[in-house]
Design goal:
By secondary structure, the chain is of the alpha/beta class. It has 13 helices and eight strands. Helix content is about 40%, strand content about 10%.
């Protein structure tokens, strides 16, 4: 970018070219107002996008929430809010995504674009001449925004529909890349961080649209005539929540929380077993299992990352992947959506 000097000789320096969006929203709308001398335009745009406050009231009780005045100032943001009554000053970042981030607003926006493009923290820090911990903080806030959006808008991840095919499985276990079924109860005892993940994929989409849910209930050893265990009940509720009625669901008998047998009680779906479909493979072939492996390829990679993380970090990994899958088809759209979702997450009262 013209207002930045590249100060690194990192072998990954070619990554810096990704800090534009190929003539998209960032290049056409944002880049021009990041130039020196356009700080007023930048702040007006941030207000229009609801990324900073359009009005501010003095917090002092004696001022009775008097409306503060927007003033030019000799500070990093070039402006602040001032109370005409008590002369108190407030940062224009108060209550916003940008509060307590130690770099100017121009660099904040470029770093958000870096997160949308999955640019590594060290590469973004070197290119933008920022401390790695500053980039890390901005990236963490973007992740939190993405997670909040996924939590608050489950309807965005409704899969399937009449006569569409969904594949339901679990990780670790089931047919998600494992040649042999895994005893999840034993696996969890050996690895305290092991997380059972319910996985739903819409087979007709390329790449497959997916939903992941980390099962909170603890795996239990099956007890005859004891009814459904907690993890099965939790998984069934999640399937109902994200699979549209009328869908065909392909399930298997290996899965612990979402087996073919368990899913059959959901009468709004047509449930088919993997084991039964395998009978249609030509002798000596495993076409169905190969197709399942292809469908789950990305899902397996994400779930493996979760197994190496803490439970809270694992949830961040799943939510971030879901957000990028839904909104990150291009860097331009990802950046626009992230700005809108930041505004939603940091609503001003």
């Amino acid at each position: 970018m013209s207002d930045l000097k590249l100060k690194c000789r990192n072998p990954d320096v070619n990554m810096v070219e990704r800090f534009g969006d190929h003539g998209g929203y960032f290049d056409l709308v944002v880049r021009p107002i990041l130039q020196q001398g356009h700080e007023g335009e930048l702040c007006s745009w941030l207000k229009e996008m609801s990324l900073i406050r359009t009005v501010s009231n003095c917090p002092h009780s004696t001022c009775k929430r008097r409306t503060m005045i927007w003033n030019p100032a000799r500070i990093i943001d070039k402006y602040n809010w001032g109370c005409p009554e008590c002369n108190k000053k407030l940062s224009i970042r108060e209550g916003s995504f940008f509060l307590a981030i130690k770099c100017d607003l121009k660099l904040c926006l470029q770093t958000i674009l870096g997160w949308c493009q999955v640019v590594p923290e060290t590469v973004a820090a070197n290119y933008l001449n920022l401390k790695v911990h500053v980039v890390k903080r901005i990236y963490e806030r973007c992740t939190q925004v993405a997670n909040a959006y996924v939590d608050n808008h489950p309807e965005e991840w409704s899969l399937g529909g009449r006569d569409r095919v969904l594949v339901v499985d679990e990780f670790p276990g089931g047919y998600m890349g494992a040649e042999n079924p895994i005893d999840v109860t034993v696996h969890k005892k050996r690895n305290n961080n092991s997380q059972t993940i319910l996985c739903i994929a819409e087979a007709s989409a390329i790449p497959p649209r997916m939903w992941f849910h980390m099962i909170k209930a603890v795996p239990e050893v099956p007890i005859p005539n004891a009814g459904k265990c907690g993890m099965v009940e939790e998984a069934l509720k999640e399937v109902v929540r994200h699979a549209a009625p009328g869908s065909f669901i392909v399930a298997n008998s290996r899965a612990r929380c979402c087996s073919y047998e368990s899913l059959q009680e959901l009468k709004q779906f047509k449930v088919i077993s993997v084991e039964n479909l395998q009978k249609f493979d030509a002798p000596g072939t495993n076409n169905l299992l190969h197709n399942l492996e292809t469908i789950w390829q990305t899902g397996v990679e994400v779930c493996e990352d979760v197994q190496e993380a803490t439970q809270s970090m694992g949830q961040h990994i799943l939510s971030t992947h879901l957000w990028r899958q839904r909104f990150g088809t291009t860097s331009s759209t990802a950046f626009q959506y992230m700005l809108h979702h930041i505004a939603e997450c940091y609503r001003f009262i």
